[in-house]
Amino acid sequence: MNIMTIPMRNIRRKPSKTLLLLLVFSLGVMSIVALYEVSQVVGHNLEKKLIAFGANIIISPVSEKLSVSYGGLHMGDMLFDIQNLPEQKTIEAIRSIGLKDRLSAVAPTLVTMTKVNDTAVALVGVRWPDERGVKSYWAPKGTFPERSDEVLVGSKAAEKLHLKTGGRISLLGRSFTVSATLYETGSDDDTVIFMDLTALQALTGKPGATSFIQVAALCSGCPIEDIVAQLQEKLPGVEVKALQQVINQRMTSIHFVQKLALGISVVILVTAAAMVGLSMMSAVNERKKDIGILRSLGYGKPQVFLIFCLEAGLIGIFSGVVGYLVGFAASFQVLGFLHLAEGGTPIFSSTHLLMSAGLFSLVTVFAAVYPAWKGAGVEPSAALVAL
Description:
The protein is of the alpha+beta class. Helices cover 54% and strands 21% of the residues. The strands form three sheets. Strands 1, 5, 6, 7, 8, 9, 10, 11, 13 and 14 form a ten-stranded mixed sheet that branches. Strands 2-3 form a two-stranded antiparallel sheet. Strands 4-12 form a two-stranded antiparallel sheet. The longest helix is centred in the last third of the chain and has 43 residues, at 244-286. InterPro entries: ABC3_permease_C (IPR003838), MacB_PCD (IPR025857), Macrolide_Exporter_MacB (IPR050250).
């Protein structure tokens, strides 16, 4: 018998009590692991859904603004030396950054002005799959354009130009069909006409040109500043702007879910640790005779203290392993029950398994420090006299 075998024998001496303690602590670990895995998947899915409500990075050519006034008449701010971005080259550069797996959508856009019946209106050329990827809130009265001779008209523009679904409109010398008008969005989309990007590039004589590119980035796994820095490195001489307000609003929602799960996990962990501490305190009171015998055989206070800590540590390691495996399996059931499994599933990690065993063994050891200290303080004479 040595200092390593004594804790194992103590655990086996009262199997029912030990099993009950293991069950309680394993359930605590299982709850924490399941909450962690569910919060990760829910946060990821929530971010992907929020991304569909607009881009959070805008890439545009650098332009200079000049405030013009003459003879006391202020003519406003004017942009000059405006350049367009090459669509294919710019998108290839965006898709080649190190954090490209964090990019959810890349939507090129070309904007120009025209007149319809002497009314000025903005034409916006888009790639429909990409644009709808960042604007899932669009609700059309009709169907989204499928052909290059179809356009989508914003609500205010349609009212101003007296356009309805199925109507015809002449834009830049070519006739188009209004496949749908948008319900009011409260954004600039209400005042413009959307059409196929290739069609607008041909009509304006700017093949392959874009005014700016919208990028929807997933920000929960890395700072948005890292993505912006990598884009600036790949696109020198181009303005890359992060929409911080949009990013902060989205991250607040995601962090709320993660903080809620963390708070519940801390409560569960403290409760489970308290159970371990109470159990170890009970064990100390029951084993005063054993402690007295060990002390009489020459075991010092540090060795007795170590025996109780090792016993608690073994319980923590076993509970950490079992709790992680069961909690990981339970997270699938929870996600399925809550109908949240769409778009992502928990990913098993052996590193997390080892971390779980190590972390929860430290927690149980910490919970057993006071009982172990009390046990180590038992004097052999007092213990043997009590017999």
